[in-house]
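Mods, move this if it's the wrong board.
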Amino acid sequence: MFADYISNVLPELGEESVGEVGMETLADELLDQKVRFQTFVEQTALLLEHHDDDMRRRMEVKSSLGFLETLDEYADHVERTCFSADDIWIGRSLVPAWFTEQSFYRHRGVSITERIGRVVKAIEHNVGIHYNHELSTEERGSVRKAVRKMYRRSSLRATYKDLFTWMDEPELFKPAKGGKLEYADVFPLPPWTGTCSMSPARVPCTG
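Not the wrong board. C-alpha cells:
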C-alpha cells in the first residue's frame, strides 16, 4: 500500500526510479549472506497458528530498549575479554605484554585482520626505536602469528548465543526450524559483524 502511494507522490515531487529495499534483503546484505534466518512472514504465521508465550517473550525482550543497552554492555565485555597478551621475544628484544595489549585496544572498530596488522606495525616500530633492530620478513611473520594466538576467536553466532548465557537467560536463544535464527534475532546481529567477535552497536570480534 505504501509503495502504491509513493509511486504516485514521488513523480509529483520530481523524483523517479527510487529504489526499494526490504528489511530482510537489507539484513542479508549486512550479514554478507552468511546467516540463515526466519522471515517476517514465517514468524507472523507461527504467532497466528500457535499460542507460544515463550516466543512472544523472546520477541518482546529483543525489541526493547533495554535489550539494546544490554547489547552494548555485552559488546564491551566481549571486547575486554577477547584478547590476552603475552610477552614477545624477537631475538633478545622484548616486547612486553602491556605494549601489545595497549596497541590492540587502541585500534577498535576495524576488522580483526587489519587490527592485528596495526599491532604488528606498532611492535615493529617499537623494536626499531628501542632496540635499533629492523624486523626481517620471517620475524614479522612470527610476530603476526604470536599476536593472532593471543586473540580468542569465536563465530558471530556462537558469540551471540553466549550473550544470553551472560544474561543468565539462555532460554531466550532458540533457533527456528531448520537451525535458522528467529526473525527477532536478525537485527541485533549486523552491528556486531567485523570486530573481536562482535562489535558494539555504537561503533564486534569475528575475523
